[in-house]
Specification:
Elements lengths: L1 H44 L5 E7 L2 E8 L2 E12 L4 E9 L4 E8 L21 H4 L21 H22 L1
């Protein structure tokens, strides 16, 4: 019985060592992949930028996008309460105050209804609902200029108001 316990302990110890070794080997690869994915996401919401710098101002973190050393815009995070939970959003804003891109990072909206905020139509590359925000000024963000999703008014309103509120506050702080 004691032999069985010692053998089991040795197997567990070896398995732990192997797992730790695999973790150490794959950690840089995982970090590199995350970094590439984040850069691609940033370029998607602010396509005119090729470099991004993280800036912290009064505890708030945002990205400054530049191209050839010139600031072309900013990327901010917005959070809004949807029907089923929080909706986390990235918003790209050009220097002139126009929205360059919006991307939903995370949500728990109802599939087939509120989750349509991230729905991509056949043959398209980007969610149709979020594409409506592009090239609009902050003051133009309303349901006259952005079509709500049928059956998902709460989710549509949450994204619209989240983007508008955070963008207005950010632009006020930049003045």
């Amino acid at each position: 019985m004691i032999k069985f316990g010692v053998i089991l302990m040795a197997i567990c110890f070896i398995a732990s060592l192997v797992l730790a070794l695999v973790y150490q080997i794959t950690q840089p690869v995982i970090a590199s992949q995350r970094s590439r994915e984040e850069l691609a996401l940033l370029k998607e919401v602010l396509p005119t930028a090729n470099k991004f710098k993280v800036i912290t101002n009064q505890g708030e973190e945002y990205f400054e996008g530049s191209n050839r050393g010139r600031t072309v815009g900013y990327i901010i995070r917005a959070n809004s309460r949807g029907y089923s939970g929080d909706i986390k959003i990235l918003v790209g804003i050009a220097i002139d105050g126009k929205i360059k891109g919006v991307q939903v990072l995370e949500h728990t909206e109802t599939p087939g209804l509120g989750a349509r905020i991230t729905e991509v139509k056949s043959g398209e590359k980007h969610p149709w609902f979020l594409e409506q925000f592009k090239e609009k000024r902050i003051e133009e963000l309303n349901f006259k200029n952005v079509q709500a999703i049928t059956g998902a008014t709460v989710s549509s309103k949450a994204v619209l108001e989240g983007v508008k509120k955070e963008a207005e506050e950010f632009l006020k702080s930049k003045r």
